[in-house]
Task: structure prediction
Amino acid sequence: MIAIIPDILLLLFPFLMLAFKLFLTQAQTAHKNFAFAYLFILLICQNFVLIGDTQVYFSNWQIDTFGIFMREIFTLSALLALLLSENYFKHSMSEKPKLFHFSEFAASIGFATFGGVVVVSANDLLTLFLGLELATIPMYALVAWNKRDSEGTEAAIKYILMGSVATAFELFGFSYLYGFAGHLTFPEIAQALQTNQASPLIWISVLFIISGIGFKMTLFPFHLWAPDVYEGAPTPVTAILSVTSKSIAIAFLTVLVFGPLNAIHQEIVPFLALLAGITLLAGNLGALSQSKLRRFMAFSSISQAGYILIALLGNSPEGKYAIIYYLFLYTFSNYLAFFIFSTISKDQSETFISLNGLSEKSKFLAIALLIALMSLAGIPPLAGFFGKLQIFTAAAENKHYFLILFAVLNNVLALYYYIQVLKSAWIDKPAKEIALSVSTKQKTIILILTLSVLLLGFLPFLSNNLSIALL
Amino acid sequence: MFEKVLLNLLWILPFLTVLFSIPIKENSPRLKRFHLASAGIVLLSSIYLLVRVFQNTVSNTSSQFQLLFETKFNWLNAISANYFIGIDALSSMMLVLAAIIIFTGILATWRLEKNQKIFFGFFQILAASVYGVFISFDLVLFFVFYEMEALCMYLLIAGFGSGNKDYGAKKLTLTLAIGSSMILAVFLGIYAETGTWNLLKLSDIVLPENFQFWAFPILFLGFAVSSSLFPFHFWSPAGHSAAPTAVSMFAAGVMMKMGAYGCLRIAIYLMPEGAKIWLPYLLLLIAFNVIVGPFIAMRHKDLKFITAYSSISHLGLIFLGLAAMTPIAFRGAALQMVSHGFLTGLFFATIGMIYSRTHTRDITQMSGLMKAIPFIGVGFVIAGFAGLGLPGLSGFVAEATIFVGSFENPSPLCRVITILAILSITATAIYILRCANKMLHGPLNIPKESLPQAYFEEKCIIVFYIVCLLILGIFPAPFAEFLDTSIFPIYSNLMR
Result:
């Protein structure tokens, strides 16, 4: 029974946040401290429920090792997003805060996180779909959180429209899958696929499912909403979109591909390989000529989605392991970059130019930025490289050599644009001096994240523990 | 046991140095001394290790490398990568070369005025990366060290270089990244085919011929990118001319050797069948380096461009030795790796000293420098003589061995290219003598007050390198026999 306790705690979190504000106190600091402490303790709790076998609760709430690690990633991402958003809610003498209503904000993030948990616990198509929707709908609201910002509202509308179309695609695909198998539960779909000849019906269904999730995972050619939405949304929301939203989508696809669709895995693979390759290239080419940081991060995360997709070409335990390992490291690197951008953008817009002269103003931040970006670019010995290495080995075991060569060559393109950002921060001189103030708390978080990115990949600790649990 | 610890410390010590240099005051003399002391310790330990390996190596007739002082434990279990380091003849020689270049590189940057912490920090990380490359015998570990330099190279060149530095830095970093991507792809392929990254285990496994056929050219060219084999040579002039002195010395002296080292130790060793099929064709690319390189150098006026093209032609000779596939040619290639490291280090060091005084690298705008700064001038001329293969200096030994070895290969193409390569040495002589003549002789055209005599640390650098060039030039035999113990396994694998 113990494995389900963290899930219940997570479900309680948004309600507690709202109740806390309604009945206890209006003080924002209390809300913040409560949220941070709660999520932190939850993260530790999730660590203690590592179970070997799959456990099923309430007939279709399924908890397995993959699900537990995904839960940790979602919770970690939620915690980091709240820490990141803290400054945006802060009242100061000189300026008004950019965002209001922290406890509702935290509650929305809590709901979205719980949506992710539903996705990884699902054992039938309906629950899976519910989870995905629960994870997406709070995001629409989060994107438009700063309601006086017209760009944010525009982004939210774009996101809702695109997201609804994607949902429709998803449901259409599910309906065909149901029509083929006659059941909604995963084991029965798997059995139907194994016994029956694959009919065209299945291909239509798979095509629509992958297109639908492609929207949320920002795969080519469904990626074009991402730059606009990432640019319009407030920075913490952009961060959570690029980590939680993407991890939920990849978890969704993993649950399907290695679950009910495992019987036709070999037939889906060419399609996934093509999508992965084009997504990589599209993301990288798009990022080449950006000058706004959040737009740039959008394209960078599109190409990261391409990399993660490569892991699905591998076989089941290795592929799942590679995805989890990569997502952990990606979460750290990505949040590190966003934390640095947010400290810089406090008084300026988030463009490459506002990074100018960072190395003169704060060596610490400049080195942290170097580490974050080089990790995203996949340069050893930083975390990102080891994530990519695991993904490539998973794919190499099925002999997808050509795709691997294409993907590693794409890394060079990626290195180019990450170097462009480094150039702004390290080489270019600022037009006017703007003092940089970073609070001790922010510095501590950045330091912890930097150390994680530096050491988590190189030291075998994380990798070996994950592989014991998953392989 | 002591040697084992020392071997591990080689790459750990630079990182520790960076860590402990953080609290030291920026731009203080203590900071420089601290980094110099650390590099000195590494240099001494690498020399000690060379001596120990020299004592313990016996002549080798198996197809296995004779590894000493191994450290091995499981690292990333999920992909069965090990932490596996050891040392043999070739790696011990390369380690000493790298340590000397790093040590003198720090000396050459002694008068850097600002941002020392960043410069020396990144330079130490570069150092760690090359030491790691030469001692790791596990492909993942090897690649981690090999690619690590990309982290620092851009910032070192773009931040501390001269001229068109952003362009040069990007060109260098990205071109090298293309090479390492190709290497990574083939490494993954090797792992997928065999299930191990361990170089020693891999040498017992014969990779499928079809795989070797596709993988060998990708791996070889991937390594050749960092050794500036045609058509991947273009990063070298742009990168070298933009880089600060120490980084130029490092890039030409050690980094370019890493590629040739990888070609010999990994590409040819693991895929002998592929090597036999492809190397005769790759000779045509090598011919460009060897034959056209010196002629391009002749036309240039910028000292660093001249040296960069001279490096390209000398690296071509290494590849000629590899492509000839005879034991003597391999030995020559290994000797040339070490010898060229020393001479190019001296070249770039003296160029840096001249540039810091005249603020130009255009040889037509300098003249008569020998009258004002004789010490540096002599250093430059000796580097040039070593480059054109004057007997008594190391260049002659290495080049002559390569030519003898590659002429032993019966293929007509190889022989023709060898003959052309021997003739191209004349072209080398022409550009080096022209350079020395224009720059060092004739009337002095720069006020003597702006040309201070060589400083103490600069004299140290020059003397240091000249001693190395002479030792290798006058007593090559023990080193050649010593290197043979590493080369024979590669050759016997090739003939299997």
User: Anything to note?
Assistant: The first strand of chain B starts at residue 68 and ends at 76.
